[in-house]
């Protein structure tokens, strides 16, 4: 906005300066031309009177006129030029004086008064010619416009300086005005961004005028209502989850009792029992996930932090979960990197990502650990499935989002909470998670965690996305 003010002020000041210069130029030149014409007519009448009365010679008559510097009076009679300006080197002669154009002489000799702007030694001048038929001569006067040209130069510099000062003032004014206008909007945008990231306690400060105070109050009331609704929903989910635990425990005990006597059941009954057991297990997992989510929503989720070697944690968790069927690749420079983390929650992150790969990506093909800059480490879980469409890459971390699996039933469909818990656990550790394409096909889930010991960047700190070929070969 300040640039727009500056550009607008510059354009307006330039337009005003141009119009002012043109008007002043037209006025002063017109005045100078009129003065020169009147003066020439007056001098021509005096010269004709003196010559008709048989007074002094022509040179003396012409030298009697007081001319400004750079000007001169001339008489053309019977093919001879006369001048009283001896300093210019003119007396009687046949040479046409400097500053008297041939075309002007022809026009005046034909009996027509005329004037013409000329240039003498690089300086502008105006030449006025008047015919004197009573004495058989033509009278010419040359008036220098050097002083007027100098005036125009000074005027141009003054107008340019004024235009520059106006542009600068417009820029300063624009910066000040835009600051007053944009600052409240920046505060609104910053507060809205903080609220979108889960900081529901953020509010807009009062002040800034009646209109902005009204905006602040309305915005804060809206956020307060939103916070109250979210907290109420979170409390409801927490209460429901707690209330479901008791009957769910009873149902699980009944299912376990039936499973102990499964050999005595008919094939159809055993099949029904298997379906019931799978659904109860899925239901139990969802209740546990909801309870975990409710702790995050209520802000009471506590991390049991320890200093952990991330490569050992990943290797142990993946090996225990997959039985060693999924390789763990530790990139050069990522060995022994330490993070302050909750072991149980970080293990849950890895297990959920491996579960997701099994359910939707045909199983994980590799888990990689790599340093990403001097302060972060990346853990990447890769699969060879269909990948994740760009339009779904942020939605899959939302609660109960299952994409194409939303319409299917059964244990493989999941609850839609696994990746949400991954995002919550990682965010609680000050990290981030995202999904991208895996080279060669499939999906790559990237978890970034801050390092607890930042000792500077090391060779090979490129993250999972790009690593030198030699380093990749050594890691495999």
In short:
The protein has helices at residues 2-52, 58-63, 102-109, 146-196, 210-260, 267-298, 310-322, 343-360, 418-428, 469-475, and strands at residues 72-77, 80-83, 114-120, 123-132, 137-144, 305-309, 328-330, 338-342, 364-371, 376-383, 432-437, 443-450. With 476 residues, the protein is of the alpha+beta class.
Account of the 3D structure:
The protein is built from 10 helices and 12 strands. The strands form 3 sheets. Strands 2-1-5-4-3 form a 5-stranded antiparallel sheet, with helices on both faces. Strands 7-9-10-12-11 form a 5-stranded mixed sheet. The model is unreliable at 86-91, 405-412 and 467-476 (pLDDT under 50). Helix 1 (2-52) runs antiparallel to helix 4 (146-196), helix 5 (210-260) runs antiparallel to helix 6 (267-298) and helix 7 packs across helix 8 (343-360). With 476 residues, it is α+β, with helices and mostly antiparallel strands. The chain is 52% helix and 16% strand. The chain is rod-shaped. It folds into 3 domains: 2-151, Beta-Lactamase; 210-298, Signal transduction histidine kinase, dimerisation/phosphotransfer (DHp) domain (Helix Hairpins, Orthogonal Bundle); 305-475, Histidine kinase-like ATPase, C-terminal domain (Heat Shock Protein 90), CATH 3.30.565.
Question: Which overall shape is indicated by the principal axes computed on the Cα atoms?
Answer: rod-shaped
SSE series: HHEEHEEEHHHEHEEHEEHEEH
Computed Rg: 48 Å
CATH class of the largest domain: Alpha Beta
Largest sheet entry: 5 strands, antiparallel
Strand content: 15-25%
CATH architecture descriptor of the largest domain:
2-Layer Sandwich
In the sheet with the most strands, the strands line up as: 2-1-5-4-3
Number of distinct helices: 10
Structural class: alpha+beta
Uncertain spans: 86-91, 405-412, 467-476
Give the overall average pLDDT. 78
Q: What level of helicity do the residues show?
A: 40-55%
Give the N-to-C terminal Cα separation. 55 Å
Please tally the β strands and state the result: 12
